[in-house]
Every structure is written in structure tokens, then in C-alpha cells.
Amino acid sequence: MEIYKKALSFDTSKDYVNAVIFYEQSISANEIIRDAFINLSFIYWHSAAEFAWADYHNIPHSMREKGAKKYQEIIKLALKYFPDDVELHFWEKYFPHRLFFDPLTQEEVLHIVWRYSKKSLVPYFFLYLFDKVHYKRERDKLLLKCNEEKTAKNIYIATLIR
Questions:
Q1: How far apart are CA 67 and CA 149, in angstroms?
Q2: How far apart are CA 86 and CA 108, in angstroms?
Q3: Chain CA centroid to CA 55, Å
Q4: CB of 123 within 8 A of CB of 109?
Q5: Are 6 and 23 in contact (CB under 8 A)?
Q6: What is the Rg, in whole angstroms, of the alpha carbon atoms belonging to the chain?
């Protein structure tokens, strides 16, 4: 848990290179923390998908290339530990949707939420983009949560639903 806390501190300080190093160490040290997998996978994916973001945050090209290869692998590993986690299943579909334009519909996300319960508000940022009135309550709760802990993932989500 101590390594994860360091990773989270780097993440919320926008030192994403060190955040990646410590998230990887946390996972390697068998600190099986769901958010370590999610946050690492997110930074890797975002580094590979958003060149301007990666440039702005001085993400080395080697890390971007590694991230492009590993973000899905990290999600799949996390799903072995947390097979019923709604957020992991959502990111598993969302990342390729944004990076490769794989289709992802409102109905598919609703199915993920229905199948794996409503324990995470994260999929609602995507649903909110389809129906701002129906998902406003979930969006408001999610925005509060994102503002409490400003990881790369939460900043990204907040930017999309403000």
C-alpha cells in the first residue's frame, strides 16, 4: 500500500513519469489495488492516445510506446483479480473506442453497468455524453469525486463532463 500511495501522490502532482514507475512497482510488489491497475493503464493509454497531452507533460517517447502496448494488458491482468469490476470492464471497451475508433454504444455501456453493478460512477461520464438530463445526477456525483482526487484519469473525466 505504501508504494501505491507514492504513485498516487505523483499522479495527483502531475508527475506522470514517476507515477507510472511507482504504479508498476506497486503491482510488481503484489499490492493488489484496483486503482493502481486503472491509473497505470489510464496514463499509459492517455500517453499513447493524446500526443499533445503527452508532450505537455514531458512523457518520453519510450513510455508512450510502452503504454500503447501495455494499457490493455494491464486491464486484463486487473480483471483476473477483479473479474466483476464495472470500471475495469468499462475501460476495457472505452480505451480501444477512443484510440482505434472501435464502436462503443450507450447500450453497451448500460449493459456493462447492469451486468457488473453500479459500484462505480465512472461509466456515467460516457453515458452523460448521450443524455445530459437523464444522467445529470450521476454526473454531478462523479464530478465531485473527480475534484477530490485529481489523478490523470479524474482530470480527463472532469474535462469531458464540465
A1: 23
A2: 12
A3: 19
A4: yes
A5: no
A6: 15
Is-contact 22 7, C-beta < 8 A?
A: yes
Q: If you search the block for the grid coordinates 499509459, which residue do you land on?
A: 44
Neighbours of 155 (CB within 10 A): 18
Q: Grid cell 484519469 — which residue?
A: 153
SS3 label, residue 141? helix
Cβ atoms within 10 Å, residue 49 = 17
Angstrom distance (rounded) from CA 72 to CA 95: 8
Residues whose CB is less than 8 angstroms from the CB of residue 117 and which lie 6 or more positions away in sequence, other chains included: 84, 86
Cβ atoms within 10 Å of 3's Cβ, excluding its own:
19
**Contact assessment for residue 132 and residue 149, using Cβ atoms and an 8 Å cutoff:** no
Residue 148 has φ and ψ, to the nearest 5°, of -75, -35
User: Using an 8 Å Cβ cutoff, are 16 and 35 in contact?
Assistant: no
Q: What is the mean pLDDT of each run of 10 residues along the chain (162 residues)?
A: 97 98 98 97 96 96 96 98 97 94 94 89 97 97 97 98 94
Domain residue extents for the chain: 2-161
Amino acid at 2: E
